[in-house]
Amino acid sequence: MSAMTELRDALPAPGSPRFWRSLDELVADPSRRPLIAEAFPQLADIEPSLDRRGFLRLLGASIAFAGLAACSGPPPERIVPQVGGADDAPPETARYATALATGGDVVGVLVELRDGRPIKVDGNPRHPASHGGSDARMQASILDLWDPARSQAPRTNGAAASWSAFESDMATLRSRFASGGDGLRVLSGGIDSPTLARQRDALLARYPHACWHVHEPAAGRPTGTWPDLAKARVVVTLDADILGTLPGHVRHARDFAAGRADPAGMSRLYAIEPSPSLTGRNADHAWPVAAADIATIATALAAATGVDVAMPALDAATRERVDIIANDLRAHAGAGAVLAGPRVANDVHALVRAINDGLGNSGSVLRYLARDDQATDTTSALIEDMRAGRVDTLVILDANPVMTAPGFAAALPGVRRVAHLGRYRDETAEAAHWHLPALHPFETWSDLRSVEGTASIVQPIVAPLVDGRSAHDVIDLLLGDASDDPLARVRATWRALDDDAWTEALRTGVVDASFAPVSRPPSNVASVAGTPAMADARELEVVFRPDDHLWDGRHAHNAWLQELPRPVTTLAWENAAWLSPELARERGLRDGDMIRIESKGRSLDAPVLVVPGQAAGTITLTLGYGRRHGIAKGHGHDAYALRDGDGAWWSGDIRLTRLDGRSSLALTQAHQDMGRRDIVRSGTPDRPPAFPAPEPHASLYPEKPGGDYRWGMSIDLNACIGCNACTIACQAENNIPVVGRDEVARGRRMHWIRVDRYHEGAASAPRTYHQPVPCMHCEHAPCEVVCPVEATVHDREGLNLQVYNRCIGTRFCSNNCPYKVRRFNFLQYADFANESLKAMRNPEVTARARGVMEKCTYCVQRIQRAHIAADRDGQPIARDAVTTACQDACPTRAIVFGDRGDDASAVARASDSPRRYELLDELGTRPRTTYLAALRNPAPDWRDA
Q1: What is the DSSP letter of 488?
Q2: Helix crossing, 471-479 with 486-493: angle to 10°?
Q3: 95, 172: one domain
Q4: Model confidence over 456-488: pLDDT tens digits?
Q5: Which of 105, 228, 459, 497 has its CA 20 to 30 A from that of 641?
């Protein structure tokens, strides 16, 4: 009998916990929990094969980029800082508003500069797409700027070249294409820049026979729908990850949390999807459904809500769930939202629009956005033209189609001239005749429009760190309009803005009255192609989805994002084939077993990862791995190799074969386990969790003298969605190093705040809760009493501090910490010799050496900065003026920080909530970090499978 069979036979087991972190923990047999029983996997021996030289090579973000910091400084043009920033900011600090395009989305950001060096990125509170929130990709963008692996100068056919040589080549090209541009093609990602759209139109007007192709391998079909989740009382998603990967997810997360803040009017979320997403993990009801059946469920839901379509044949359990959802939507007509994701068929979008129109949701909770109707050829059409010899010159703008477009690499040798603009020498750069370094958005003038319509001016925060150009520059070279004034190019797009309006747009990061016009497309269910039948449950399908952090692979060079555990799987540095517990049991598979997936003549070998909440016959592969260059080389498996050339998101007719051998996965789910204690707590609006008031207890410890402030933190588990933005924000703020894939697998990642994940219920469709865990800053801290050199101490204001130059590395404090929040530098993870990393670091935070313990400090540098400003002004620190990095980054505002001694402060008000509880309060550590219990709002008649 296989291990997985034994495991499945043990589910559910008597005495199994209500909340569980992994399938191993759900099983009652202690022999099935070897990793859980090992509280300190980070104490494993270091493999002799890992030497320091190889380890540093792995960390691409720690390789020398000599002299980079010396290139930094302000751009020559006038840029405008934000006015009214933090009062306690040091004089050498400035904040500039700009915008970023990250993974098919556009968000407004504020960039903090210290001595002219960008060191921190946060959301822009004035921008409607972020409202000050952020995600992990936004937070990690600062590493993209300072990344030592960036291309630094042009290259032609693998040899060093110059921009003047490329300009001469373009002059020759313009002469040949003067008759109309036959054979000229441009390939770019989605065009979010009004200036680039204007240049595209000018290029196609100059060369009417040329074509501009758009390649977005992970974007899918634009939905054109903008929901107001703060108003919606019932939300139904059909494979739509509105909280994790869809454009606008930062704003949607904020609105979603707002709609659930009041238990009396708490919204309800149904997530219908083939594989779990961040949205499904936060749903009141996550319903795993095969991708092939999404259209059937949409048709049934439309019929049940009054749309004129035939009800498909359903089994009794499926029909019952459809009726429950439909009744809920009808009961909240005009206050509901049904949302279809970009990966579902056009018929599903037509049905969803008809449902929303019929229930009165359109115009109240939903608005429709006008899209750019400029015709663009598909990547598959470009590949066909390349094969037929119809492409003479191809200019690729910041895309990697050799890696992400099946069939592209084989067709590329037929193109006479290929020029690639990109920030890295990636797979496409290696295959191109010209590789041109691209500037980072913080180094150039541009503009961006978010999906909901708000435009922002992108201003250069720092002078270019490399000899690069922007996409605007390259298109101007094609047009023969090359200019040394990139600012004038962008201002030409915004001629309607006078000088005052232009300055205000730079200062605030928002161009007033720039919203896209609202369109109201008619619902057309007549186009729906018949009533689909439910797929055979025995048939397998493979589903492709963008990685939560790497997206389509464009962020694969970012070591912070590579090392950040994925919200759904807690896997780092690699991907795996997601299988349901049912399919794993049937095939006798367990985590790490190697399998081969075959589809339509293509195959892929990948390790298995058993994922609770996965649809029974669905295999999920995440995109963006299997790269052949940079720090991503050798990590994960290339899911594009199995994908159709037309970018299909799922495929049937799958063959699954078990292979010999296993792969050890870098899973963090069982690391830093706190034991079988009452860790996460939850309830419902009707039955909220109730905690008795703490009783006073006598203590053998003397009370520590109090200062003027009693700093503390409160984390609302009802608002936390598990996006991990807080983890990367903390990494950027506190100079936390990358350790590499092997060290992560040993439990040695250095993140000061981790996000634990707990499941409740059956493994087939569990309810999931996320819990950020920083240092608790205990008033009776177990770590302090065991340190032999007083390297961990308590200050008068309640902070548990670490004195790095005292620490001798005994690790007694880590052994004695019940919350497992201390991190030890087993190796020299930080690079002290690199000028580029010095430029990126926060100068207020010490970079730690090998043999030193570290942990969350409540961003003590910000507290001290506030003290200095208050002493200077002769005033106390203003209420709620001090914020932590994790608090600033959180898109849902789940984290609040402040003075617990001020009854009117946000953290003190949170302490008055009936949902408040202390983690491991039975130990008597009196933590300053407390939690608010999570709530779920289940439908009364819903029955779990």
Answers
A1: H
A2: 90
A3: yes
A4: 999 999 999 999 999 999 999 999 876 678 999
A5: 105
